Amino acid sequence: MSRRTGLAVTAGLVRAGAVAIIAVIAVTEPQPQPTPPRVYSSCLAADTNPMPVGDDPCEGR
What does each C-alpha distance from 20 to 11, 25, 37, 39 come to in angstroms? Predict the structure, then answer.
């Protein structure tokens, strides 16, 4: 085998190896999960003061 042929074969093997590695990385990447829907509520407490017993802001009065 001539030197030129040997270099061409080596370059081809390196390129094939790089393509194989890139393909494996692309397949094993985790797929992004969809964002869960946001829940909005007017019942979230805006302050940190304790509420009196029986005073529920979400009761609907």
Answer: 14, 9, 38, 44
CA distances from 55 to 25, 44, 45, 47 (A): 56, 14, 12, 14
Task: Give the other-Cβ count within 10 Å of 10's Cβ.
Answer: 10
Chain-centre distance for alpha carbon 37: 16
Helix (H, G, I), strand (E, B) or coil at 59: coil
5-49 tens-digit pLDDT = 989 999 999 999 999 888 887 777 677 888 888 776 655 555 556
- 38 phi/psi in degrees, rounded to 5: -80, 145
